[in-house]
Amino acid sequence: MTELPPHTESELIELVRSSEVRAPDSLHRQVGTLLASRRRRRLALHPPVLAAMTAAVVVVAALAVFLSGSGSHTLNMHLAAAPTLRAATRSAPPESSTNHAELTAAVDGVKFPYWEDRFGWRSTGMRSDQIAGRAITTVFYADASGRRIGYAIIAGHPAPQISGGAVFWRGGVPYRLLSEDGASVVSWLRDGYLCVISGRAVSGATLLRLASWSDHHASAS
Amino acid sequence: MRTLDPQSLTQHVDRLYRAAWALCGSREDAEDLVQETFARVLARPRVLSGEHELYYLMRVLRNTFLTSRRTASRRPVTVAALDDVVAADPRPLGQPERALEMQEVYATIAALPEDRRLALVAVDVLGLSYREAARALRVREATITTRLFRARKEVARLLVAELAPEPPQIPVARREETRANGVLPSRETS
């Protein structure tokens, strides 16, 4: 360090007040996403405007995919699992009224599972992240003893290639199980989307059972 | 009375992040706290009764911080974030030495007792007036003055003790012991 620390209170005040530490870009993006989400809710009352905006977003997204290539090599298991171990930032999504095996939350139509009645894991919150150019949506679940699981679905095609860990086959689908930062992590593909589930103090067997539950959730790819 | 313009909030992200960092002592927790604060504010339309937006954000930040602390204390399993999920860039406009210094300053502020920490964050980090800070923290203005005085003094003293090249650093445990023997000035009592 080349500068001396503040020696007096007035120096301290000056230092703190003149600080120009910037928030990380990821946080700026998250706030932007929250604002966009709010705008979308308001625009839902105006279908023509919403349709025009949706078309614009589709074109931009298609261009982004075209220009950036697959980008699948940039996201690894470590990064993909990270949001599942962080804190929720939004309230829990409710159970779907049409399918009692699903929540209302989804990524590109891939719904998060509803586990409360069958397994005792109730959804407790959500968060959204942008990591390595991928939008990652995570739903958190907790059981009666306070254990927590994070279930992430990574948006975008093709799904990132994940390697490493022990491979377990369930219904023709390979599930990769490994330990990450003291937590068990399982990854697999659902309808072509990479999913990651992890939890501390939760066994790999439990995670595998939850991940592979319900035939229509898993698909070989 | 006016409705809060959500778009105007984007200009406060950096400042709110600094405030959250000083409250939490960790960049990752600060990021989560700011996200949650904005999520709460944007959940529905907000009406401000003449006050500054920052004042309102400070109120929500404080409530969110206290709620998350209570929730975390009830949670039987501590869930830690991976340290390199998002490579937070602490550099203030490309000045690495200054960044290191601010990191120490925020860590020291975060170690203060909660009431003093909140007062210092509201006034010195966010830049609220004493009056706004008092309203945001739901205390009297005189209380803010007292807490701020003690907080600044404590932080300055700790920074001198921990960062200055002379005299040599004393480990925390040793410092407590030394203080008890009267070598260093005693800690302010609230």
Give a structural overview.
The complex is a heterodimer of chains A (221) and B (190). Chain A is an alpha+beta fold and 221 residues long. Chain A folds into two domains: 9-68, no CATH class; 73-217, Protein Transport Mog1p, Chain A, CATH 3.40.1000. Chain A has six helices and nine strands. Chain A has helices spanning 9-17, 25-43, 47-68, 77-81, 116-119, 204-211; strands at 102-107, 110-113, 122-131, 134-142, 148-154, 166-170, 173-180, 183-190, 193-199. The longest helix of chain A is centred in the N-terminal third of the chain and has 22 residues, at 47-68. In chain A, 35% of the residues are buried. Mean pLDDT of chain A is 78; it is low at 62-73 and 215-221. By secondary structure, chain B is mainly alpha-helical. Chain B has one domain: Butyryl-CoA Dehydrogenase, subunit A, domain 3, CATH 1.20.140. Chain B has a two-stranded antiparallel ribbon. In chain B, helix 1 (13-24) crosses helix 2 (27-41). Chain B is globular, with a radius of gyration of 18 Å. Chain B starts with a strand and ends in a 10-residue tail after the last helix. Chains A and B meet through helix 1, helix 2, helix 4 and strand 3 of A and helix 1, helix 2, helix 4, helix 5 and helix 7 of B.
Helix and strand string of chain A, N-terminal first? HHHHEEHEEEEEEEH
| Shape, per Cα inertia axes of chain B | globular
Mean pLDDT of chain A: 78
Structural class of chain A: alpha+beta
Number of domains of chain A: 2
CATH class of chain B: Mainly Alpha
User: What fold name goes in the CATH topology slot of chain B?
Assistant: Butyryl-CoA Dehydrogenase, subunit A, domain 3
The tally of structural domains of chain B comes to 1
* Mean of all residue-level pLDDT scores of chain B: 74
Regions with little confidence, pLDDT below 50 for 5+ residues of chain A = 62-73, 215-221
Biggest sheet features of chain B? 2 strands, antiparallel
Count of discrete alpha- or pi-helical segments spanning 4 or more residues of chain A: 6
The largest sheet of chain A, given as strand count, sense and whether it forms a barrel, is: 7 strands, antiparallel
Order of helices and strands of chain B: EHHEHHHHHH
- The total of helices of chain B stands at 8
